[in-house]
Write a structure and sequence with these properties.
By secondary structure, the chain is an alpha/beta fold. The protein is built from 20 helices and 28 strands. Helix 2 runs parallel beside helix 3 and helix 13 crosses helix 19.
Length: 597
């Protein structure tokens, strides 16, 4: 980090307007560098490509997620240090450059809990020497977060985490619009954008368009980064492509797939905006309305028997009811399917929040890959950021369920999603825990899934405890303001419950056709079976029809259950089906527009 972070974070009352190259020139060698947006939404790709080409070095990358922005910067050898909570390329799997850097030890990688990072940014934003946060009880994460410590609260004496300020030199973000005064409009989920902007010495923004003063008042459900928080703005139509920027264009998954597949040319080159601009189909897809998609006839029903992914999705859905508030985290197709299935069948009044609670209270629209974000954005009752999501919902104990995948779980229900040690001694880097270390205790029900049950995934003791239900019993949870619920692990062989007395996993249900011995043979610890252990019921024909033809017509849930070798072919199949489905939706939307006119 450069010594420029010691200077005031106060910015001029009005940003100056420039172009992408002008913004790029403002990034300094060795800057502590944050990136806005979320997954494949509103990423400042045009600016990141310019930074990658500039020869800048020694950046300290600081962000909740790594993903595509970090891959671009690592490819250009621009990064010297990495601070994050999670890194994934969504359906495309683990980021290869991040994995290589982490596994080789070439670059220091510091894993944060989401709440610790939020509070550290807030400390910088609010000019405070530290901020408190709820401890991630049961995990190893407190010792891994830079500068964090557990101390008695000075008033109550309760064990509490404290974190010093996390200051940024430069924060870059793409947004929908700015007005001529420099106020910046963000539509939809805003991730950690506001907290990071407040913690940054300079905020550099690319936008799709610049509008007259007063025009931003006409848009509903937006967030405004006021002009005194912004340093400089460049108009860059298509500046997030091939990521999305609603309502202008959706994520171009086909282009991303092609960019990741071609290794002969740099990623920065493969992600360039076409000369003619954002492709028409990607722009037209952003115009498709939820009512159009939901009203379209469902696909023809399939007659085949239920597959294990469908059985697990239906079984998880059975955990939900009309009082549920279910949050879908970073990359969880199975959780998304289960939530939407429950809301479309027996729990119409439940609340579903997607994109890490950025879309609040969505409708259960079909999971069409290219349209998921836009349909959720449209049907959501409200949009939120990751920072206020924590303080309003997670820390308050308001969320009942957040179902997440785990790479490795031990007999005490502890999870490792950070790294595994090879027999040779080397590391296998995993995506990271995201926010699971925090919410494992905060949410009423602690639900995990392991799609492929094996002695490698279910072990006697995990190497790194990235998250765990440290607060398990009512006596432990109620003083913290948390409700007590179930702690379950779903696999393709069985369902475990974390017993409150023994604090170890017990098999309470088996998958159809699976024997006790098969489970014992595939588990890396001595298995205990509950006295009332039963078989998981098969989903009804009606449930299967809704799951297959209305909720998940592309079969995105299958991505969780295939091996790395099978994943490429399945992604190609899904992308082809997605393209056909989107074309169908665009044609129907255009037909309706013509009929109305």
């Amino acid at each position: 980090m450069t010594d420029r972070t010691a200077t005031s974070l106060v910015k001029p009352n009005r940003p100056h307007f420039t172009d992408v190259e002008g913004l790029r020139a403002m990034v300094g060698q060795g800057d502590s560098f944050g990136v806005g947006g979320h997954h494949f939404a509103r990423l400042p790709i045009a600016l990141l490509r310019a930074i990658a080409r500039s020869g800048i070095k020694d950046l300290r990358y600081v962000c909740w997620a790594g993903g595509l922005p970090l891959e671009l910067l690592l490819e250009a050898n621009a990064v010297a240090e990495i601070d994050l909570c999670f890194s994934s390329l969504d359906i495309f799997g683990l980021p290869p450059r991040f994995r290589a850097a982490a596994e080789s030890g070439v670059l220091p990688v510091r894993d944060w809990t989401a709440l610790a990072m939020i509070q550290a940014l807030r400390a910088a934003q609010q000019n405070l020497p530290s901020m408190p946060f709820q401890l991630p009880d049961g995990s190893d994460m407190l010792a891994r977060v830079p500068g964090a410590s557990g101390e008695p609260d000075p008033i109550s004496g309760t064990a509490t985490g404290f974190i010093p300020p996390l200051r940024l030199d430069t924060f870059v973000v793409h947004a929908q619009r700015a007005d001529e005064n420099g106020n910046v409009q963000i539509i939809g989920p805003r991730a950690l954008d506001f907290a990071m902007a407040g913690a940054a010495r300079q905020v550099l923004v690319t936008v799709e368009e610049i509008v007259p003063v007063g025009a931003l008042r006409q848009d509903g459900r937006q967030s405004i980064l006021t002009r005194n928080q912004v340093s400089a703005i460049a108009m860059a139509p298509g500046g997030a492509y091939p990521a999305s920027c609603l309502p202008f264009y959706v994520t171009d998954y086909q282009r991303l797939s092609e960019a990741f597949a071609v290794r002969e040319t740099p990623l920065a080159h493969n992600l360039r905006l076409p000369f003619e601009g954002v492709p028409a189909p990607v722009r037209e897809a952003a115009k498709v309305r939820a009512e159009t998609v939901i009203a379209m006839p469902a696909m023809a029903p399939e007659k085949k028997n239920a597959s294990v992914d469908e059985i697990i999705a239906a079984r998880i859905a059975a955990e939900l009811d009309n009082e549920s508030f279910a949050s879908a985290g970073a990359v969880s197709p199975l959780a998304n399917v289960a939530y939407r299935l429950a809301k479309a069948t027996h729990a119409p009044d439940m609340i579903i929040a997607t994109m890490s609670c950025g879309h609040l209270d969505i409708e259960p629209s079909p999971m069409i890959l290219s349209l998921i974000e836009s349909l959720d954005c449209e049907t959501a009752v409200a949009h939120a950021g990751g920072d206020d999501t924590y303080s309003t919902y997670y820390q308050a104990g308001a969320v009942t369920h957040e179902i997440v995948g785990a790479a490795q779980v031990d007999r005490r229900g502890r999870v490792n999603t950070i790294a595994l040690r090879k027999p040779s001694g080397g590391l296998i880097r995993l995506p990271g825990q995201g926010g699971m270390a925090d919410v494992a205790n905060m949410h009423r029900d602690y639900l995990l899934y392991i799609p492929r049950h094996s002695v490698q995934s279910l072990v006697d003791e995990v190497e790194i405890v990235s998250s765990a239900r440290g607060l398990l019993t009512p006596a432990e949870r109620e003083p913290m303001g948390y409700r007590t619920g179930k702690a379950l692990v779903f696999t393709d062989l069985c369902v475990f419950r974390l017993d409150q007395t023994s604090r170890e996993l017990t098999v309470v249900e088996t998958m159809p056709g699976i024997t006790h011995q098969q489970i014992r043979d595939a588990t890396g610890f001595a298995v205990t079976f509950d006295a009332d252990c039963q078989q998981v019921p098969l989903p009804s024909n009606d449930t299967l029809a809704i799951l297959r033809n209305r909720i998940d017509p592309l079969g995105l849930r299958r991505l969780e259950f295939v091996s790395a070798k099978e994943r490429g072919a399945l992604i190609a199949e899904i992308l082809a089906a997605d393209r056909a489905m989107v074309e169908r939706c665009i044609a129907e939307q255009q037909r309706l527009q013509i009929a109305r006119s």
